[in-house]
Specification:
Number of domains: 3
Strand content: 5-15%
Number of helices: 11
Radius of gyration: 22 Å
Helix content: 40-55%
Strand order of the largest sheet: 1-2-3-4-7
């Protein structure tokens, strides 16, 4: 589910960027001021993630991450991405973490990331926003832009109202979306439903609406459905390759470092374990012959 879900959320994010800003409380006086831009932050991710830029006299960039499962140390990743994007575009970047189900939540997702230097106090304070979709009132999503409609069934909706909500989503799609867009958004709705319900339940809930209300037949064989899954597979494979390269570089650093600098304790190994920037790992490996200890290696300015 994770790979098609990634592709689905990317599609929804790019489809109607102004609607995402409005949903998050940002007034968009002129939709022409809103644009999706390529991040190209290769030191952070193997994929070309998208950012939403709002122009005008007070420009800002919206950086949104979607999570359906628990990821350790995610606030640190958000901060790194935020800082790199702000530096590249010289524009304030607002980071929003959208949690798609309770399984993605955790006690560290407070909206703040704080770092302290031992004996020197706090030296970093980073604020981000957390949106827990299952706590968002369903009426708010049903009234939002078309790109946010697929989130309605996984919002704050009682189980007994789920069929009613799905029919409301279908009515808006039938009345406001072109046939191609209607199929794309309904496919996204089914994929998101699968976060919380088994496939058989999703089919039972959507089958009649799919054929009778929307007039979509054989959705699993449709080009839109297959395209989303193909994109999901491609993104997953790209991420897997990148993660494999990072892991190999980390192992190489530790293996050669042990030969040059000796054994490293659990604390130092933990510091290396959180480095997921391939270029940085390779630079640290290159510097092994220039330093006399692990502490000196990891105390470089970039560390």
């Amino acid at each position: 589910m994770a790979k098609p879900l990634d592709a689905t959320m990317h599609e929804l994010y790019e489809l109607e960027p102004a609607a995402w800003l409005e949903f998050l409380g940002v007034t968009v006086p002129d939709p022409s001021l809103v644009a999706v831009i390529e991040a190209h932050l290769a030191t952070v991710t193997a994929e070309s993630d998208k950012l939403i830029r709002l122009g005008g006299p007070a420009p800002l960039i919206l950086h949104t991450e979607f999570l359906s499962g628990r990821v350790a140390s995610y606030p640190r990743q958000l901060h790194r991405y935020n800082a790199l994007a702000a530096y590249k575009y010289q524009t304030p970047v607002w980071s929003v973490l959208s949690l798609l189900r309770p399984a993605a939540d955790g006690p560290d997702l407070t909206g703040e990331h704080v770092q302290e230097v031992p004996g020197r106090g706090m030296n970093l304070w980073f604020r981000y926003e957390v949106v827990r979709i299952w706590q968002v009132p369903v009426e708010r999503l049903l009234a939002a832009g078309l790109a946010l409609l697929p989130l309605a069934p996984v919002s704050d909706v009682p189980r007994e109202r789920l069929a009613e909500v799905l029919r409301s989503v279908a009515r808006r799609l039938r009345e406001e979306a072109s046939p191609g867009l209607r199929e794309e958004l309904w496919t996204a709705t089914e994929i998101l439903l699968g976060l919380n319900h088994p496939k058989e339940t999703v089919k039972a809930l959507t089958e009649e609406i799919t054929t009778m209300v929307l007039g979509i037949h054989g959705i699993e064989e449709s080009s839109v459905y297959q395209d989303i899954f193909a994109k999901g597979r491609a993104e997953g494979e790209a991420r897997g390759r990148a993660e494999g390269e990072v892991e190999e570089a980390r192992k190489t650093l530790i293996r050669l470092g042990r030969k040059r600098l000796g054994a490293l304790d659990e604390s130092l190994e933990g510091r290396i374990a959180v480095i997921d920037d391939l270029d940085r790992l390779e630079r640290l490996t290159d510097r092994l012959l220039e330093v006399a200890s692990w502490d000196e290696l990891l105390a470089t300015p970039e560390s």
